[in-house]
Amino acid sequence: MTEPATEFPPPKILTLSPTHKPILITQGAEGRLYKTPSPFQPNQFCALKYRPPKPYRHPILDARLTKARISSEAKVLDRCYREGVPVPAVLAKDAAAGWMMIEWIEGEPVRVGINTWLGERPEDDAVVDTSQEDETPLIDLMKRIGVAVGALHRTGVVHGDLTTSNMMLRPWADDRLPNGHGSTSERAKAVAGDVIVIDFGLAMQSQSDEDRAVDLYVLERAFASTHPRAERLFHHILDSYREAFKKAPGVLHKLEDVRMRGRKRSMLG
């Protein structure tokens, strides 16, 4: 993967080492993500999320918003990590300066793994026969996603932007299949690994079934748009979610209401 060049000055914390230049991985409307050597572990990397000053905002308001958002995201991540949710660990933060340093997660986004498994998109009129295909590795990945989301909701946190781009597949130490059997299949390797949930910029603490149902609906719609050929397997995520989270029945009941509202909005344009 080609990494974009750094076009903007990094935060001061990343300029202290004369020998290691940070790499700008991605930039969004609200912040930037850098990859940099870890100051805590030799020969390891970490990720630094930085919210730069916004010139279009009043400086005092901008400073308050930045501090509040960094503090909120770090607090949510800390809570999830303590409760055993698969998320990156928070290593350090300076909310006033607008940055948070977290564990670097090796691997590829779940989005990439699923698309690698699915292979090239067929022609529009082509009929894809999957009846003879062993989909166990992909199904096992769907189940691991459900477990991760169940653990997140059990902690009292909703993500706010659950998509397969906001989940990483951290490689296992060996090349076992998700069901525990060894394999050299490249497709199976593409969907192997631990599911780690990332990017909690829109997350909040909530015990609301409605909020949790919206989380699931966002993920379901992400599958429909990004992985339409895997959408028929989405029920495995919900089945696994139900097993991982004892309050899931109420959430899944509310999900039906959220789906209905979504269909009405689609019909009205």
UniProtKB/TrEMBL annotation:
Annotated InterPro entries: Bud32, Kinase-like_dom_sf, Prot_kinase_dom, Tyr_kinase_AS
Q: Give the top-level enzyme category.
A: transferase
Q: Which PROSITE patterns match?
A: PROTEIN_KINASE_DOM, PROTEIN_KINASE_TYR
Q: Where in the cell is it found?
A: Chromosome, Telomere; Cytoplasm; Nucleus
Q: What region holds the Protein kinase domain?
A: 19-269
**What Enzyme Commission number does this protein have?**
2.7.11.1
Which UniProt keywords are present, listed alphabetically? Activator, ATP-binding, Chromosome, Cytoplasm, Hydrolase, Kinase, Nucleotide-binding, Nucleus, Phosphoprotein, Serine/threonine-protein kinase, Telomere, Transcription, Transcription regulation, Transferase, tRNA processing
**Gene Ontology terms describing biological process:** tRNA processing; tRNA threonylcarbamoyladenosine metabolic process
**Highest rank taxon of the organism:** Eukaryota
UniProt keyword Cytoplasm, yes or no: yes
- Broad class of where this protein is predominantly found: nucleus
GO terms of molecular function = ATP binding; hydrolase activity; protein serine/threonine kinase activity
Alphabetical GO CC annotations of the entry are: chromosome, telomeric region; cytosol; EKC/KEOPS complex; nucleus
NCBIfam families on file? arch_bud32
Binding partners and assembly: Component of the EKC/KEOPS complex composed of at least BUD32, CGI121, GON7, KAE1 and PCC1; the whole complex dimerizes.
Q: Which PANTHER family match?
A: EKC_KEOPS COMPLEX SUBUNIT TP53RK, NON-SPECIFIC SERINE/THREONINE PROTEIN KINASE
Q: Which family does the entry's similarity section mention?
A: Belongs to the protein kinase superfamily. BUD32 family.
Q: What is this protein called?
A: EKC/KEOPS complex subunit BUD32
Organism of this sequence: Triangularia setosa
